[in-house]
Amino acid sequence: xxxxxxxxxxxxxxxxxxxxxxxxxxxxxxxxxxxxxxxxxxxxxxxxxxxxxxxxxxxxxxxxxxxxxxxxxxxxxxxxxxxxxxxxxxxxxxxxxxxxxxxxxxxxxxxxxxxxxxxxxxxxxxxxxxxxxxxxxxxxxxxxxxxxxxxxxxxxxxxxxxxxxxxxxxxxxxxxxxxxxxxxxxxxxxxxxxxxxxxxxxxxxxxxxxxxxxxxxxxxxxxxxxxxxxxxxxxxxxxxxxxxxxxxxxxxxxxxxxxxxxxxxxxxxxxxxxxxxxxxxxxxxxxxxxxxxxxxxxxxxxxxxxxxxxxxxxxxxxxxxxxxxxxx
Length: 328
Description:
The structure is a single chain. By secondary structure, the chain is α+β, with helices and mostly antiparallel strands. It has three domains: about 5-120, Trna Endonuclease, Chain: A, domain 1 (3-Layer(aba) Sandwich); about 135-210, Winged helix-like DNA-binding domain superfamily/Winged helix DNA-binding domain (Arc Repressor Mutant, subunit A, Orthogonal Bundle), CATH 1.10.10.10; about 215-325, no CATH class. It has twelve helices and 14 strands. The protein has a seven-stranded mixed β-sheet, sandwiched between helices. It has a five-stranded mixed β-sheet with strand order 11-12-14-10-13. A two-stranded antiparallel sheet has the order 8-9. Strand 3, helix 3 (about 65-80) and strand 4 form a beta-alpha-beta unit. Helix 11 (about 300-305) packs antiparallel against helix 12 (about 315-325). The longest helix has 15 residues, at about 65-80. The two termini are about 35 Å apart.
C-alpha cells in the first residue's frame, strides 16, 4: 500500500469517525496518461459516492490549470464526482484551485470538496519526500542526447560533457545519478571514466520514461517582432509539424530559462497577460531544447514529455504515433 493511500485512510477515518472502504475503480476507459498518473478508488464520503484520484509519486506537482483539466477528463470518462488526492499543494496553487472549484485533499492537512467539506487551515504534517526516481534535467538531457543524437557508450566522461555542454563536475553528478538509477554501468579505462548502457533504443526509452519529467519550467504569452534567435518550435506547433494534429492559433517556441530572461531584459520580446494580445507562446526549458533536438524544432521525446499530461485525447493519440515513428 502506498504511503499516500495509508495517509488517506487515516485522514478519512479522523473525518468520518470510522474506517472508510476504498474500492479500486476500473480505469480502462481513461487515457493512458491519466491511468499512469492516478490510482482511482471509490468511497462514500458524507453519504455521497466519490471517486478519489490518488496522484502517484512519480510526477512533479501540476499547476491548477492542469489539475482542473485532469478533473474534467476524469469526470467525463468515469461519470462520478472526482476528488484529487495529492501529497501536497503549495499555498499559491491551493488558492487558485479553490477559485477554480477543483475538489482536492491533502491527507492529514487540507480538504476542499465544495458543498460537502472545506478545511484549508495550515498544518505541517510529516512531509512526503519528493520522488528521488525522477532524473535531474542534466541527466535527462544526457539520456535524450544518447537516444537521439549519438550513442554515448564507451566515450570518456570529459568528452560527453563537451557534447552535451555541461561542466565535468556536473557530468560527474550525472554519472553517479544514472548509475544509482540502474540505467548504466560506470567503468574505468585507464584514467578515463566511461558509461555502458545495457539497453538501447525503444527498450531503453521504456526503461527510463517513468523517470523523466516535462522540460517546461515556465510559460509566457509574448509579443515580439521576430522569434528570438535561440528559440525553436515546440508544443502543439512542433507536434503539428510531426503529426496530423492542427496547430494552435498562436505558435509555440522553446528556449532555456536563462535565455528567456536575457531576451526579456534585452527587449527582444515583452510578456502579455493572455493569448488575446500575444503573438506567440514561449516555453522556458530546464535544458537547452537544441541539444537533443536541432536548431529548428525540439526533439520528439522531449516534445512527448512536454505534452504527455495534456487532457486532450487527440493529442494523446498523436503522441503515441510520434513515439512509434522515432527512428531508434
